[in-house]
């Protein structure tokens, strides 16, 4: 069982337009509504590919009730922690070239009792050796050290812990010694306080996170592929070009693919990175934050690069700058 914890879930509405023009009245070409939050997306992707997963999330108000209805309708295994306030609703505007503009609400404030109950629920939903995945932004009122505290509590209970967050929460979580962190290029850049312009820069930054406490760093680089770095090795992967429809949730599918592969028998780190890249590539071909199923994933989309020099490690990244 892979258990995800999303402390700030959302209703995610994606609106497709021909072009985003500030100040104009735009006619949508399509709209999509999905249950949202990074951990929720990871669970959705895992379940769509037959991997057991359960989402733990606090919900409140009518938006929270609608979110739960969507989870039930999609057959997503979940456990909710009722909270005061209203679950947030986010909007993403997607253009035909794959550009996405996101408007995210802050979400409700969670008190200490609610935060403690989320941890207790995650522990009840998992067993020793299971992955517990801490995902997304912290809700208002939670200290920057909260994920770090959860990492220590879960590790002490024998869980494997992955963290996908950003900013100070990521830096504190790394110091707590998680089994895995999954930043994208921007999040990695913020964590090491400098601009990262090449794969070589990203590898150096990932090594800084392993030196600071993370056992393994999985970096999503969007169109530039991804990296997997630990104390023993650096693995580099890339994807074949795909026609992107929406990048919303692609990083979550990327993480889900890696976790799915690590739970399979006789799958090495290289195969896990390839799986992550293939799941991420499949996600960008789909509308909104729809997660890819087994019929959408093409392992041939992803290649493990064994000759780092051939990949030109010092060339600028598409997403840099």
Structure commentary:
Strands 5-4-1-8-9-10 form a six-stranded parallel sheet, sandwiched between helices. It has a four-stranded mixed sheet with strand order 3-2-6-7. 34% of the residues lie in helices and 23% in strands. With 321 residues, it is α/β, with parallel strands linked by helices. The longest helix is centred in the C-terminal third of the chain and has 16 residues, at 269-284.
Give the helices and strands, then pairings.
Elements: E1 2-6, E2 10-16, E3 30-36, H1 38-48, E4 53-59, H2 61-73, E5 78-82, E6 88-94, E7 100-103, H3 112-125, E8 131-135, H4 146-156, E9 160-164, H5 167-175, E10 180-181, H6 185-192, H7 199-212, E11 216-220, E12 226-230, E13 234-239, H8 250-263, H9 269-284, E14 302-305
Parallel strand pairs: 1-4, 1-8, 2-6, 4-5, 8-9, 9-10
Antiparallel strand pairs: 2-3, 6-7, 11-12, 12-13, 13-14
Helix pairs in contact: 1-8, 4-5, 6-7, 8-9
């Amino acid at each position: 069982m892979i258990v995800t914890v999303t402390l700030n879930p959302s209703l995610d509405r994606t609106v497709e337009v021909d072009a985003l023009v500030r100040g104009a009245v735009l006619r949508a070409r399509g709209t999509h509504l999905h249950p949202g939050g990074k951990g929720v997306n990871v669970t959705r992707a895992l379940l769509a590919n037959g991997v057991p997963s359960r989402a733990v999330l606090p919900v409140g108000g009518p938006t929270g009730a609608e979110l739960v209805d969507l989870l039930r309708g999609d057959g997503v295994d979940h456990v909710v922690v009722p909270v005061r306030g209203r679950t947030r609703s986010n909007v993403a505007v997607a253009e035909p070239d794959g550009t996405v503009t996101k408007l995210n609400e802050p979400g409700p404030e969670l008190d200490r009792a609610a935060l403690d109950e989320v941890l207790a629920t995650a522990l009840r939903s998992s067993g020793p050796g299971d992955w517990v995945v801490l995902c997304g932004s912290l809700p208002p009122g939670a200290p920057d050290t909260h994920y770090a505290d959860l990492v220590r509590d879960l590790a002490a209970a024998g869980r494997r812990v992955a963290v996908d967050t950003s900013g100070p929460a990521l830096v504190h979580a790394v110091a707590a010694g998680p089994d895995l962190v999954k930043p994208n290029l921007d999040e990695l850049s913020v964590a090491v306080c400098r601009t990262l312009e090449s794969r070589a820069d990203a590898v150096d930054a990932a090594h800084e996170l392993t030196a600071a406490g993370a056992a393994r760093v999985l970096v999503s680089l969007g169109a530039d592929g991804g990296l997997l770095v630990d104390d023993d090795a650096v693995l580099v992967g890339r994807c074949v070009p795909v026609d992107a429809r929406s990048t919303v949730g692609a990083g979550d599918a990327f993480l889900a693919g890696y976790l799915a592969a690590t739970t399979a028998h006789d799958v090495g780190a290289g195969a896990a990175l390839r799986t992550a890249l293939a799941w991420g590539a499949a996600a960008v071909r789909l509308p909104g934050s729809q997660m890819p199923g087994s019929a959408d994933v093409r392992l041939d989309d992803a290649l493990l690069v064994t000759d780092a020099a051939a990949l030109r490690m010092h060339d600028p990244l598409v997403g840099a700058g």
